[in-house]
Amino acid sequence: MPMIPFPFDYYRPATLQEAVALFGELDAGGKRPLYYNGGTEILTLGRMREVHTEAVIDVKRIPECRMLGRHAGMFVWGASLTLSEVHDAGLFPLLGKTGAGVADRTSRNKITLGGNICSQFIYKEAVLPLLVTDSLVRIVGPTGDRVAPIGQLFDQTLRLGGGDLLVQAMTATGYAELPYVTIKRRKSSAIDYPLVTIAAIRTQEGMRFAFSGLCAFPFRSLEMEDILNNRELPIAQRIQLASAALPGPILNDIKGSALYRKHVWSVAMTEAMEALEKGASIGR
Amino acid sequence: MKEARCQLELRINGDTRLANAYPTDLLLDVLRDSFGLTGAKPGCRNGDCGACTVWVDGQPMKSCLLLAAECPGLEVTTIEGLKGGEMQRAFVEQFAFQCGYCTPGFIMNAEALSRLQPPPDEDTIRDWLQSNICRCTSYEEIRLAVREVIQRRSEGKLAEEAERLVEDGSGGMKGELNG
């Protein structure tokens, strides 16, 4: 029984330039190509005909996409690193542990950082630590090779042009020294999409937060952060006020009603803020 | 669009094998249909159940989430490649299965887990074992089998290390004495 109900061709370019050129050729030929990293989403959604392509371009052996390390005061995360590799490297626990909340271990041995950030699913939890750390992303595409702050490109999804490939993310290494919180709350089972996921850090200027599962997209809101950092008010009141400044309606679905999600978020936020204000970290 | 087969050279259980496969063929299906390696079980075919777990370059992965076309140049190990061993014996001794359908996937995952250095703690064991589903719910027995092997290996490594230190006469003190 074939799992993928439509045929496609498989390409494995050796360089970024080859990958981008190949994408252009296949796209011009009407093949609706997709870059393929871990490929888990293409395979599972393809099975349900929610993704269609006639060509996949496997980029995960391109050296730049596999990079992991420090360079010029930045951690460099190749987009083809698996979530397990990012976690096991232990360089930046906020990113490693937030990614480790996605799916299960053997799936995370295949799911990549880039794949998660560019996912069609609404959660994209690996992007949260990058948002709160003002990380940079390197994109290669038909218009060239560029680096931009993720906050400029991520608006509900990573806004890429046709043929653009996310190659790397880069995070200033100093963020690894700061108090952080990563909390994921699910409805019941240990493996599931989130009711809410919170990634947060405390810098000298204040606390920063990014959320997944609360609205129909992951986000960081500076307006909410202003409210949450107003230490003249008690934490509970700040959370209540911040909930009125959400950038969209709270999700209301089979996994949790909007009211329930708001409650779970409020409880988790209390825990997160109490820890951060004491300079403590929470990673789970 | 008509799909064309391609010839893939794969490394399976230490041997080089050739398969004529479509680009959309899953590693799971190629292992079973081209090579008769039926230890990897088709369960959910959606990356959820773990019954099809194999190793790719030593990492446990679900073979339903892999195209065979991704695998040339990588070392694939299936349950047949383990040829029995300590983990399998522990599953038998602890009655860590009922129907047995999930067992190869659990053993592939657990065997990789038991080789981690340093030995995995309880949180890591729990985290890894969540990758596999047993519909007969033998979870407690499976956990006991896995812990038993991890503990035995950990003790064996400590014993080996102690023996080595005695043999080289250092008594483990060299580094400390020399600061």
In short:
The complex is a heterodimer of chains A (284) and B (179). Chain A has helices spanning 16-28, 40-47, 83-89, 93-99, 105-108, 113-117, 127-132, 150-153, 222-228, 235-243, 258-277; strands spanning 9-11, 34-36, 55-58, 68-71, 74-78, 136-141, 144-149, 154-155, 157-158, 165-172, 180-185, 196-202, 207-212, 282-283.
Q: What does it look like?
A:
The complex is a heterodimer of chains A (about 280) and B (about 180). Chain A has eleven helices and 14 strands. Chain A has about 280 residues and is an alpha+beta fold. Chain A has three domains: about 10-60, Uridine Diphospho-n-acetylenolpyruvylglucosamine Reductase, domain 2, CATH 3.30.43; about 65-175, Uridine Diphospho-n-acetylenolpyruvylglucosamine Reductase, domain 3 (2-Layer Sandwich), CATH 3.30.465; about 180-284, Enolase-like, domain 1 (2-Layer Sandwich). In chain A, strands 4-5-10-6-7 form a five-stranded antiparallel beta sheet. The N and C termini of chain A lie far apart (about 40 Å). The model of chain A has no long low-confidence stretch (mean pLDDT about 95). Chain B has about 180 residues and is α+β, with helices and mostly antiparallel strands. Chain B has two domains: about 1-80, Beta-grasp domain (Ubiquitin-like (UB roll), Roll); about 85-170, [2Fe-2S]-binding domain (DNA polymerase, domain 1), CATH 1.10.150. Helices cover about 40% and strands about 15% of the residues of chain B. Chain B has helices at about 25-35, 80, 85-95, 105-115, 120-130, 140-165, 175-179; strands at about 5-10, 15-20, 55, 60, 75. Chain B has a five-stranded mixed beta sheet, sandwiched between helices. In chain B, helix 3 (about 85-95) crosses helix 6. Chain B is globular, with a radius of gyration of 20 Å. Chain B starts with 5 loop residues before the first strand and ends with a helix. The interface of A and B includes residues 4 and 47 of A.
